[in-house]
């Protein structure tokens, strides 16, 4: 057999093998993460429900500028512009190495779905509801952080503490500046599709220097009559209820929580931008709740961001929260919070930050007592970094500084 004949046969065999081999779509998987650790001081620290005995505290803090985490995310091209996507994300305490939520392997996010530039995206799993996804660009936490800058106790869910299990989420493509999104989280309670569920709808407009969003969310207690938050409730963290703070401590036995929010932002130039939010939050009682009247909280906030140089970012913010008079309270709770933040960019992935905050609380609120509640003086609780360690008095000062690295 001649050399040319052998080469021809080899070529034919090679083509046949290639034709028989399966066609693999283009895909990618990315490992990413954040490590954020600092030192913080607060003027008064006590336990939830206490109005005396607070002491100042200095401690190591973590996940301040952004929650410490690691994760995997990927996409596979399915053809025609459609991609399969997934994300698995775990939070951790960079000061101790512990899981951010004990018992959950991927406590922050765990979802899979499909996306298409023409039809939008549909994902399923543990993820943020549409309310947060559309409103987050205008949240005070963007530059003030959730730890120090979220509205008191993250009452209105504009930070990342509310994640919903068993969630189906659809987000449309952006059309003429508009994006709409809707989500529904199934609790799987026998005999009911609403008991323990979470649902949300939101819309966003962003074009040029201006943007705004509006959203609504409802979280139903899987204990339909109220009382202890059921483990089947879709916003539970391995059975624990999210969002309990000195602001909401007496209302945690609600039958349902509702949130409505409007946010907007305007970029003046490369140095200045402004965001503002208004939120209305309702804790709705059931026959098993420790309170009997719907508790309503209205919050307004504003944040000014200034970038004087490529390596520097500064921000200042103010928020005011007021509760309605209900449940025997004659002097409704009020919370005024002032924030400052400074960020210095060391490199594309590493930065240094410093934060300062002051809050003043007035009026009265509820705290659990036996099978019911009792009225106490409202106490200060800055942002959502002090949920279980609020001040014992009406005032609280907190400062912190740290380093963040992204990989």
From TrEMBL:
Residues 1-25 form the signal peptide. Keywords: Cell outer membrane, Ion transport, Membrane, Porin, Signal, Transmembrane, Transmembrane beta strand, Transport. It comes from the Bacteria. InterPro entries: Gram-neg_bact_OMP, Gram_neg_porin_domain, Porin_dom_sf, Porin_Neis. GO terms for biological process: monoatomic ion transport. GO terms for molecular function: porin activity. Pfam families: Porin_4. It is found in: Cell outer membrane. Homotrimer. This is Porin. It comes from Paraburkholderia acidiphila.
């Amino acid at each position: 057999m001649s050399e040319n004949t052998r080469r021809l046969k080899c070529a034919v065999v090679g083509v046949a093998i290639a034709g028989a081999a399966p066609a693999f779509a283009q895909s990618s998987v990315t490992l990413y993460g954040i490590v954020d650790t600092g030192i913080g001081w607060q003027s008064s620290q006590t336990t939830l429900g206490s109005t005396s005995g607070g002491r100042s505290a200095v401690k190591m803090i973590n996940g301040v500028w952004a929650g410490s985490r690691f994760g995997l995310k990927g996409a596979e091209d399915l053809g025609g512009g459609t991609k399969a996507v997934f994300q698995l994300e775990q939070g951790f305490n960079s000061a101790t190495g512990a899981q951010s939520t004990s018992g959950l392997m991927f406590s922050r996010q765990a979802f899979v779905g499909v996306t298409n530039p023409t039809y939008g995206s549909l994902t399923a799993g543990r993820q943020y509801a549409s309310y947060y996804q559309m409103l987050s660009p205008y949240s005070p936490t963007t530059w003030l952080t959730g730890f120090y800058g979220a509205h008191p106790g993250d009452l209105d869910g504009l930070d990342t503490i509310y994640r919903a299990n068993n969630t189906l989420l659809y987000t449309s493509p952006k059309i003429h500046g508009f994006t709409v999104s809707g989500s529904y989280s199934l609790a799987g309670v026998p005999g009911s599709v609403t008991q323990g569920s979470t649902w949300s709808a939101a819309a966003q407009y962003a074009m040029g220097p201006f943007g705004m969003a509006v959203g609504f969310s409802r979280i139903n207690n899987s204990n339909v009559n109220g009382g202890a938050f059921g483990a089947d409730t879709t916003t539970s963290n391995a059975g624990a209820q999210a969002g309990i703070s000195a602001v909401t401590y007496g209302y945690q036995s609600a039958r349902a929580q509702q949130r409505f929010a409007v946010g907007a932002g305007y970029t003046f130039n490369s140095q200045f931008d402004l965001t503002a939010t208004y939120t209305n939050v309702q804790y709705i009682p059931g026959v098993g709740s420790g309170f009997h009247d719907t508790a309503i909280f209205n919050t307004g906030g504003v944040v000014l961001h200034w970038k004087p140089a490529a390596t520097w970012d500064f921000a200042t913010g103010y928020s005011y929260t007021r509760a309605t008079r209900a449940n025997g309270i004659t002097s409704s709770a009020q919370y005024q919070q002032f924030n400052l933040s400074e960020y210095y960019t060391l490199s594309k992935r590493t930065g240094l930050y410093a934060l300062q905050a002051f809050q003043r609380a007035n009026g009265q609120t509820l705290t659990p007592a036996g099978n019911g509640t009792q009225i106490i003086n409202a106490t200060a609780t800055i942002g959502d970094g002090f949920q279980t360690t609020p001040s014992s008095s009406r005032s609280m000062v907190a400062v912190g500084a740290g380093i963040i690295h992204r990989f």
